[in-house]
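note to self: dont lose this again. the chain is below, predicted strucutre after it. 218 aa total, dont forget to put it in the shared folder this time
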Amino acid sequence: MELTHAVAALQRFSGQDLGLSLWKMESALEGMTAGELAPILQQHDADHETLEGAALIKNIAGQINVVIHALGILLCLPQLLAVDERVQNLSLGAGNTGKQFDLETDRRVAEFKFISWQGGPEAIRQNSVFKDFFYLAELESPKSRHLYVLGTEHPLKFMTGRRAMSSVLSKNMKLHDDFIAKYPDCKVVRDYYIPRREIVRIEDISPFLRGLIDSPQV
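---
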């Protein structure tokens, strides 16, 4: 089934208000027997084609984060790279792709975080940002190192704050072991970040991604 066909089938079933459409179906089916159901199901587009379309859309939606990660990097590259700078390694797939960093060129190494910060506790997002910062900071390389984010206010507030390292490291055993092996006496995030804030530049890429920033879904 093509995506446009799947969307159209789902729209017919859902109507303008899915809750209202379901309520109408519930009301229409009250008192019905099995033999009387078929015309009503057909009337409301409750068929296998619609179910197949919903499954297709669900599968595609599950890959949206990967799509955003890939497109975000691709659209940033022309804005970030110098005229004669050459890409050496690129990891467009979100998550574990077997490559250490999202981008490596002949003069920089970088990670990208397409996180829309809400300003709350956001521990999982903070943990992810710290992980990327740590591995960039610990990399032995003469190249410049960059952590590209959507707005620097919340990431920097976290990195200069006093959240306990034990909390940040608690959900990632590899990161925990790697960090503790080098810095067993480092107790809060700012103690690690402040001496290294010039090593890894936390930079805002939101001006390059207006389509992502302006979207109400992000």
